[in-house]
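Long-time lurker, first post.

We've been arguing in lab meeting about whether NAP would sit comfortably in this protein at all. Half the group thinks yes, half thinks no, and nobody has a model to point at. So I'm putting the question to the forum: if I give you the sequence and the SMILES, can you give me back a predicted structure of the complex? Inputs are below. Any interpretation is welcome too.
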Amino acid sequence: MKVTLKETIRVRRTVADCFRYLKDFSTIEQWDPGVYRAEKLTPGAVAVGAEFLLQLNISGKRVPMTYQLTACEDNTRLVLEGVNETLHALDTLTFSAIEDELTEITYEAQLTLKNVPQFLRLPMMPALNRLGKKAVSGLQTALERPASAPKISWNSALKDKLILPAALDFTERGYLRQADKGLSQFMDGKTVVLTGPTSGLGLAAASEFSRLGAKLVLIGRDHQRLQAARDTVLDFSGADAATIDFFEAELSLLSEVSRVADEILAAYPSVDVLVNNAGVLPLQREVTAEGHELTLAVNCLAPVLLMRRLLPALSAGSRVINVASGGMYLSGVNLADIESEHGFEGAKAYAQAKRALVTLTEMYACEWKSLGIDCNSMHPGWASTPGVAKSLPAFNKALASRLRDARMGADTVVWLAASEELRGQTGDFWFDRERHPVNVLPGKALSPNRALALKVWVENALAGYMNSGKSKAA
Ligand SMILES: NC(=O)c1ccc[n+]([C@@H]2O[C@H](COP(=O)([O-])OP(=O)(O)OC[C@H]3O[C@@H](n4cnc5c(N)ncnc54)[C@H](OP(=O)(O)O)[C@@H]3O)[C@@H](O)[C@H]2O)c1
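Top reply:
Settle the argument with this. Predicted structure of the protein with NAP, as tokens:
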């Protein structure tokens, strides 16, 4: 059975932007609801011959299909040939500039479906046409920049109140139900500092930042893992090796955080985005050489110290994004035992440290608002990462088929960093590209006085490590 689908859209973006976004055909996972997952199989920059592996959603099943780029004429035409056991596709995308910021894209798919019984052929046509229309409408949404930041939807506000439905969205279901998954706002010329880039969400975020054209400054504790991360990122994005720099620091030690901040300030006087992503959930209580409980040190003290020490490089329009956890909803902050000296449980200490980080992010957001620096925190839902496999093996196993992949977990980090329409949005807690309340369960919120006491405690703990940078803070 042979079918030709053809759709034309006009998109308010330059032809160069549209072409650049679509040339890496794996972005199809961001806009075509018929595609669950797509990856570029050929490492490095996309050129004729590049291969992509798509997982299609067909009648609730995941069906693999391989595509190859067979023609690539700059800003004009892309041709891709796709094959699997039952389908052959020849996709042609043509681009033409109508105005500077208006591009016409025509998507033609010539499909040959094998083994389709005669009686099904006619009824299938409307369904195929609908899929084609949905795909190009998704492409338009992914490419066009929203005029304003998203409002809180009544649906997710209600779910947050009911708690359980919101928690169900922590799985990949939450990511998949988002209407717009596009990441097409390029970050050329922007410098992104990111901690924890060597695995999981950090590696996925670094890869996407690099594809969007950002300059990356990666902070990790192991030279070889940093080199491996850089190679993975470059394979994914095809960017030039010179766009990735890395610095080594053991982030559980405040002296190391302070030192690396000095090194970054010397090399990068201007930073557009700081992502504090590194995190840990140890099962036993460990104390660092500086005397802090490890969970608190890595998940709270280090990110707060890094953002404060990098302040001289941040300016109006810069963004700080702190990666927290939905586990935070289950915890308050016990100011009398913030170092968990009187009884330690890994998940509790982790939730408390993340709650403290979110509270402090809100407070610095207020303090730095007049500087035009936006500070937000987010949580990634439940994503399958090496960290989760190690720290929560039973949870990881039980939810294996429902967990997000790292890219889905990292999506909101990249979106918060890249989206122009979010400029000036500060002091919020985000999940799946929407604001969410910080306090859901009773008794977990910090009163203003207790939040202030927390800030005083943390700033005292950091005081000895604040010296070498000039501070802009009030
Ligand atoms: N995955 C989830 O479902 C989930 C849910 C909620 C929140 N989060 C948060 O998301 C962030 C990323 O987590 P993930 O799941 O991607 O974990 P992951 O796979 O374990 O990655 C953690 C990253 O942090 C780095 N790191 C840990 N301790 C460090 C230290 N002392 N010094 C320097 N770097 C250190 C690790 O470096 P090495 O490679 O050197 O170990 C690694 O790059 C964390 O903040 C986590 O709390 C994740």
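For your lab meeting: The radius of gyration is 23 Å. The chain has two domains: 2-143, 154-465. Whichever side wins, do check it experimentally.
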